[in-house]
Amino acid sequence: MDHLPELGTAIQNVVIPTFKLYDPLLQKNAGHIKATPKSTHQYGQHERQVLDVYSPSKPSIIDGRRPVLMFEYGGGLVNGSRTLSMFGNELVYANVGAFFASKFGYTVVIIDYRLMSHGAKFPSGGQDVALAAEWIVKNKDQVSDSCPIDLFLMGNSAGGIHLSTFLLHSDFSKTRHQVLTGSDVRLRGAILLAVPFDFETATSDRTETLEMYFGDYQANSPLGLLKAAKQSAPFDFVKAGVRLLVLDADLDPEDEILKPRDRFVKEWLGLTDSAGRGALAVDWILGHNHISPVAALSTGIDKEEAWGCQVAAFCDGIRKFAPR
């Protein structure tokens, strides 16, 4: 973490150097990470629609319910895999699963989703999130015992775009209804980690990708979807008691992440219903850049992993209240 400021904040400049910094830290804990029980499943028809389930040895039980955290990684819509082979000997993102499973007793589901090289086009990212959530509902025995599930969704960067699409786009109201009303699996919270909520100040080298994936990339951005969905507020997930956490690193870039975050939060706080305004929490990750949070988990270093404790505290706070 101490060497991160010298890398700057531009995402394209920090990716490889950041992973190289964390690679030896993860290697030291490779045995612990790989010891976490994992199973792999197909959640859809496409070859990319695969997920890994990391299971805790001692599940956290609150009010008779078990937590499941589903994670969608980033990658600019063009890169990413549920385990990265280029760094850490496939320890990233297994380290995310191991951290929340071993430290907090969460079952962690890490999904692959379609990239643009697989023909991904808006709103395909939201479709993949929906299909993975439906898989959890249909295959509860693969992720839990007899206990009902408190489901939390966390999307990082591009994964957060897809999570926002799932939450705000009308195409996914049927799946949302399933996880907002079911007795066995209930969506309780969503974490939007370092998400580019709009592309008003995105770097020019991203324009072609944005146009190819989104078409109208301002209207179909998370901020654009929020503006459109406000016309029918209160949102279904807000009425069901779901809480949102917007979480950014203090070394995230201003142009691509922090300014869009401010515009999204301002728009959200313009909701006319108090429940909607109150459903949003905003917090910081101190000392990290855009890439480092996910790489820092399971390093065994408290200050590196502190943000994961922030996420767990957010989720566990919600779990202390019964689902609506």
Automatic annotation (TrEMBL):
- Record domain BD-FAE-like: where: 51-239
One Gene Ontology molecular-function label: hydrolase activity
Asked whether the keyword Aminoacyl-tRNA synthetase is assigned, the reply is no
UniProtKB keywords: Hydrolase
Q: Which InterPro entries match?
A: AB_hydrolase_fold, BD-FAE-like_dom, GDXG_lipolytic_enzyme
Q: What is this protein called?
A: BD-FAE-like domain-containing protein
